[in-house]
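[Solved] Which block belongs to which protein?

Original post:
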Amino acid sequence: MLLQIALDKPEHLAWLPRLKPYADIIEIGTPLLKRFGIGAIATARELCPDIPVLADTKTVDGGQFEADMVFSAGAALMTVLSCAASATHEAVGRRAEHFGASVVLDTITQSGEAELLPPEARFPPSFAYVAVHSPTDRRLAGDVSTAHIDAVHQMHQRGFRVSLAGGIGPATLEAVIAAAPEVVVVGSAITEADTPQEVAQWISSRLPQRGLGWPWDRK
């Protein structure tokens, strides 16, 4: 079970040297990517050259152009929304294969639905895993649903590897571990803590070691 630490604000980059011992994946979150562009990817790569960087582009169109930008900047993964057209998925998949990179299928626009992906959904082999993602704004508005945690089992039954994101921290970690996603995504519970390094160490120490290496074998 890997720990992905999500950075959303400029000041979060300052924590990277102290967080990198506990991060298996570093996420350049969408707000940070919009603030600094691909420079944020390059900065993370410079600070943590041995840790894969995920660019949370949430791509929905222009797949080839966005893929070329983030992969050429050093990102090892990027996100594409599950609601994007199949042509976009195919375009991003081709560029990922060209760069030896991987793609994460983000289901955030389907959060809370009974079925996150249609049964006939098919994606290129460069798609590494499905991101089951509870939206930040919904949670800030008072939604305390744990449906995204429950959805991990459904995705596993369908043969997908899963990353789980949204409201994950010390209070929910036990339920998250029980759901057994391959990747646990933690953002503000670490980056907005009084002692981010200590929280990252605590979470990392509790995640089971499942022997999931990098890069993953693709299904």
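(Second protein starts here: sequence line, then its structure tokens.)
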Amino acid sequence: MNTKGWAVSVPEGYRVGGWRISGPIASGSWASVYKAERMDGDAPPSALKFLPTGTVTRRQLRHLSDMTQRELRLHRSLRHSRLVGLRETLLVDDADNPDLDGACVLVMELAERSLADLLRSGTPVPDAPRLIIEMCEGLAHMHAEGWVHGDVKPSNVLMMKDGSIRLADFGLSTEIDGTHGYLPPVGSMDHVPPERWSEPLTDRGHAVWTSADIWALGVTACQLLTGMFPFAASTPRARYVAAAEYATGERPLTLPASMPEGWRSWVSDCLSPNPRSRPGAAVLLRRARLLAGTVEVSTSVTRRLLGTAAAAVLLLACTAGAAGGEGTTADRFGRWLRADSDIPDEYRALIVEAGRMCDEPGLSPALVAAMLKVESDFDPGLSDPAGNEYGIARWTPSVLQYYLPTERRGTVLTPPLSAEDSIPAVGRYMCVRLPLVAGVPGDHGLLGAAAFRSSDDVIRRERGVPARLQSYVDQVRKYRAEYQP
């Protein structure tokens, strides 16, 4: 392979530290990666990432130094089987070669290929669900430890010799300071969320949240599952414009028709226009595992009727029952909901999905079940035209439209409202609204329930539950305690 034009051109046979370059792998704008063999034979082949110094301007050098420090800080802070491992760092000392002298070299695990290599055919990638799950594992660990990757895309997800994957290229990774971190104004146009460029550029960069990684995860998952981008256009710029129009409500999200039905809601939630409503990586990991576990037993009828991650929960439960597993539906969901309560069996899967839709404190299946009990006594046919409220959660159709799955958001449904639409929407509502009452004193889950009956503006203005809602909240508290295992 000709390395002319690479960020760092290193000849075959070049020696640095105890390593000998045996061939090129890939190059980006700021660094180049080469395969290398250990000259003493005491270590397996590795990937050496060269970051230049002598061939860049002073401004570029500052930027490159920042990216190098980000990558080194992350490697020093995090170790995980889904993050590519750093073996050592080297500094090139070669005064006779000014293009390489002073370059920083990261010695890392050697991968077989990247996900970008698998996507070159433009067709779905075999074993895509497992790859998505392993990406979620890496991101969930990073986010839990207070890091945003910042540059999730197929070329930065590496496949190892055993078929497992690793997240890589942490030059844009940032530590979370409070609620967010900061990134320089760079990134892959196809995988950067639309809100990135609306954030003001400060001397620290653009503010970035973990939700940016979730958007990029959704785009990558769509590519793996269908071989196509979620926004159809011929160039990255045109696709970004389409994504921006979608984020402002000027166009709907139209995922490729080949998207497996069970994954459609999962990807749509990753691509929510509202960053606050995107599920966390840990929640997406649980949902992905359920979906992957039911691929072989799901039927077209079941997918058509449910078509959400809740369907996966229900199918998994049915499969366990058919295999002589855990007994009744109530028993199978006993980890989250008390088995001997009056919660109807047919709604338990939907309630568990709604109550575990995000990691927001206070949200739980027991809380969702208690709210449905107080709202309607689990009556899916409830109709209150005077109050314009319908169904098991007493949704007003014009409000429910904002909490439907992303691909259907903005659709005002005509009553009767199904439980399959109404119950997951309660979870989406709580994921969006609970953070907005975070500073209000009181039980976080019950504050969310009160907001559901009024609004988060009311809860913030009253600094708690208004007197007129106290009876409602007391009932939710009572049933939540009864439904908690």
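Accepted answer:
You had them paired correctly. Confirming on the second one: The longest helix spans residues 58-77.
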